[in-house]
Amino acid sequence: MVDCKKKRIVIVGSGFAGLGMASRLLENGIDDFVILEKSDGVGGTWRYNTYPGAECDIASMLYSFSFAPNPAWDFKWAKQPQILNYLEKFTNDRDLYKYIKFGEVVTDAIYSNGRWDIKTKNGTTYNCQFFISAIGQLHHPSVPNFKGKDKFIGSSFHSSEWDHSVKYEGKKIGVIGVGASAAQLIPELAKGAKRLTVYQRTPNWIINKHDRPYSSFEKWLAKKIPFLSKIYRLSLWCQGEFLIWPVIKGAKLRGSLVRRLNNLEIKKNVKNRDKASKLIPDYAVGAKRILLSDKYYRAIGQNNVTLETSTISRIGKRSVETINGNKHDHDIIVYATGFHTNPFLKEINVVGKFGFTLKENWKDGAFAYLGVTTHKFPNMFMLYGPNTNTGHTSIIYKLEAQFEHILKLLSITDDGIIEVRGSVEKQYNIQAQKKLSRLAWSKIEASWYKDGGRVTNNWYGSSYEYNRRLRAPIIKNFIVTTPQIKQ
Ligand code: NAP
Questions:
Q1: What is the pTM of this model?
Q2: Handedness of CA 157, 161, 164, 168 (dihedral sign)
Q3: Do residue 349 and residue 249 come from a single domain?
Q4: Tell me: the pLDDT tens digits for 134-150?
Q5: 293 and 176, same structural domain?
Q6: Which of 122, 149, 227, 447 has the most neighbouring CB atoms within 10 Å?
Q7: Of 129, 103, 86, residue with least CA distance to 379
């Protein structure tokens, strides 16, 4: 029997996006909502990614809600347990737990006549006026189908599905991939591994984090004089906006500074010339995420670490083999091979007006007006949707703009139906792709920012510009109607 529940709003996901949205709804007097969460706790990506060394690569004073500052961050870049703890505390403090249904895996979202039916795996249907997706972009582990992969008899797992029962000290470990996750876990594994082989396909531009713990005095100041924290937060935001964003736009001087800093760190830490030469990227700075690490090159320079750059040909029972004939023995293989980021919302069958599906709509790559609304899918909002990611600042800053955008759209819709105009969305996306084609992200064949030739994940402008546009929606860009059948 189908269990049917009625709500004004259904939010799917309880990471930063879902929790922040819920909190802002409550602050605006809206409490007729439910959050559906597939796992058994809040936190989203910060719940799943527990690999050794997991931490944020955006400074925590900025990678946190402006409306829930935390003066107690232990490090400039908080470690995963403290970020998860921040979100759990936030959920508690704002009394959000009572709105969350854990263990609810959403399978379908079907629109009809101004209402959505959100169906879950266990047979419940939530009927609502507004469907808000807050499922994030990085939660489907991508594990390449290497020949022989399933025959490996040691331990193997994806970085986001870390098996903590496996001891890695004294073991022969292979890490496949050198992205943001790998850059954090490799230095930890290198400390205790008997031998660590790093399989690198494309090197990254990496600059130092200059991480450090906050002193008790700094924490005391942040607590007692919140204004100081606000100024500090602003200065962190400015660094991303005025130092890194121009690099992505192609600023020559700042780009060459990143190259120089990267190369200096390699020279300082990696004495083996052959190894060092393999670490220097040959593509535009910023085309892939610029990584921040104080420890990565030091780890790669260690004698117990091998850098393998030949293509993997197969995985044996206890080894990884490459096309140049090398064979590396392993007890453990870590797939730090990233995530399937496209198509967006792929695990949910989203059916909009007249039976249109998101899957069909986005067959050539996802798009949405300002990343939040898409034509043919009325009363549906996306948080961290298509073309909203960033390579230079905190996604939380942009999420907050999305919360305010959605709140404004909710208030003008009242009990009706809102849909972005098709012509507006089309024009917006033509402009977006034109601007994206000039940025560093377009200057590389493939990355998780892209779906085929199109950049589908990142926004084309500064985060200030995004914020400005989101917080002042142009109402005439939307069609607002009253439903034919009043619920
Ligand atoms: P990623 O950046 O997509 O890196 C995946 C790595 O796996 C790349 O080095 C890739 O090589 C390699 N790879 C994929 N398929 C391969 C194959 N068949 N053979 C060999 N190598 C292969 O994934 P990620 O490191 O998980 O990071 C994803 C994103 O998560 C980051 O960009 C960041 O936004 C986020 N993240 C954030 C934090 C944080 O601190 N906030 C921490 C971790 C991750 P190619 O480059 O050649 O494709």
A1: 0.96
A2: positive
A3: no
A4: 999 998 999 999 999 99
A5: yes
A6: 447
A7: 129
